[in-house]
Write a structure and sequence with these properties.
By secondary structure, the protein is of the alpha+beta class. Helix content is about 60%, strand content about 15%. Among the domains are: about 5-60, no CATH class; about 130-189, Nucleotide Exchange Factor Grpe, Chain A, domain 2. The protein contains 5 helices and 6 strands, in the order αααααββββββ.
């Protein structure tokens, strides 16, 4: 490093100092040359430390983004599983009670399976993951959260009200993971 480059480096390091550091540095410079060398070394170390601090912060931010993305992928898998369970429950609910399937053991098995499908259990799991459902019957339609799959025209129900949730939608933090598919009451003019 040339003397001129070294001088520029020292000046740039001095520019980064606050007032108390500058006073301390000035007292070092007024002392003998050994103290001056120590002061110059300290200035260089301080600059390198600031660079390393910024690098560590940048790496921590990248790690946090990767962890968030990874968690979102896990949540998407859970949502697919949740939709599968809900569809299975709906299929079981629609089975005729008085038919070929009315053998008592089969009915007991179906009832046991149905009792395992409590929404509060799944909602607790979702809450633990930081996920919430974004549609309920009676909510107002919101295009940023819901996707209209069907519409009805019923003057006894308030306009733009969700009358059925066909597929749950989910929010993770403040980010929509998937839109709820809904049936909405829409008054036609």
């Amino acid at each position: 490093m040339t003397r001129e480059a070294f001088k520029e480096h020292i000046c740039s390091q001095i520019d980064m100092m606050d007032d108390s550091e500058l006073e301390e540095f000035a007292s070092f410079i007024q002392d003998d040359s050994e103290d001056k060398n120590v002061a110059e070394e300290l200035i260089g170390i301080k600059g390198e430390f600031k660079k390393l601090t910024k690098l560590v912060q940048s790496m921590e931010d990248k790690i946090e983004r990767v962890e968030r993305t990874h968690k979102e992928e896990e949540i998407r898998e859970f949502i697919s599983f949740d939709n599968f369970l809900k569809n299975s429950k709906d299929a079981i609910d629609s089975l005729p009670k008085a038919s070929i399937f009315s053998i008592s053991k089969t009915n007991k098995s179906i009832e046991a399976l149905q009792s395992g499908f409590t929404t509060t259990q799944y909602d607790n799991i979702l809450n633990t993951l930081g996920v919430s459902r974004c549609a309920n019957i009676g909510d107002k339609f919101d295009a940023s959260l819901h996707e209209v799959v069907e519409m009805i025209d019923d003057r006894d129900i308030e306009d733009e009200t969700i009358v059925e949730v066909l597929e749950d939608g989910f929010i993770y933090g403040e980010k929509i993971i998937n839109y709820a598919k809904v049936k909405v009451n829409r008054w036609t003019l």
